[in-house]
Amino acid sequence: MDSMFEDDISILTQEALGPDEDWLDSPNTDLSGEMCSASHFALITAYDDIKNRLTGLERENSTLKRRLKMYEVKYPLIGEFGEEHIFSLYEAKENSLLKSEKASLQQQLNQFQHELQKSKEREEQLEEMIQAYEKLCVEKADLESELGEMRALVETHLSRIRSLEQQLRQRDGGAFPGLGGQDVPFIALHPNPGLSHVLERAGGWQSRGLEAELEAARQENQRAQHREEHLKAECERLQAELKHLQDTREQEQSERDMAWVKKVGDDQ
């Protein structure tokens, strides 16, 4: 390049112009020579300046080319396809990010749906437990009421048994405890063996009737006691089942609270 510029500059030098006779139109005066020399110097100066600028531009162009090659090596997609490919690459990247985000959101949605299903199942279980709890409470109240009635019945039978035993003791103490004071002289004044036999038979019937009634009362008392024991065992079973339901409900409530606290902590 320098040789080319030197060839161009040589055109403007005095030696390249040849002798004065080659300049047909040039005036042969001192004033004209000085003016030509000044103009020639100005042209040479301007040309040097242009040459320096061109050299700087060439150097800058070379630097830009080197940078472009570096970028092409670093980003091979740039350069051949240009801005269109950059846009398509950006669009593909955006689509990939959107797909990834969509997949993540779908996964979260599936997880939330699964948790919702589990919550519904737990809610149904809790409703069943609450219904069973209420049913047990009603059964317990009914059993307690029936137990109270059975206790009152047992007390009644015990009172009846004590009364019958007292009557038996009174019968054993006297042959005819029910007779009044006027009957005794009447029997003494009119002795009759047949009448004595009838009275003894009547006393035996009364004694056997009292004994049968006493035995029936005792059997009824035993049945009432067995029924009371059965009711007590049923009450204890219901109380144990009720306590188990309460413990299970408290444990599930505690687990739900812990899961909610953990979820809030993860979200934060």
Written overview of the protein:
By secondary structure, the protein is mainly alpha-helical. The chain contains six helices and no strands. The radius of gyration is 65 Å and the shape is rod-shaped.
Mean pLDDT rating: 70
Unreliably modeled segments: 1-29, 78-82, 175-200
Number of domains: 2
Query: How are helices and strands ordered from N to C?
Result: HHHHHH
Q: What attributes characterize this protein structure?
A:
268 residues, mainly alpha, 6 helices
Short description:
Helix content is 87%, strand content 0%.
Task: Describe the secondary structure blueprint for this structure.
Elements: H1 2-12, H2 14-17, H3 30-74, H4 82-173, H5 183-189, H6 193-267
Helix pairs in contact: 4-6
Region (Disordered): 246-268
Protein name: TBKB1 protein
InterPro entries: TBK1-IKBKE_adapters
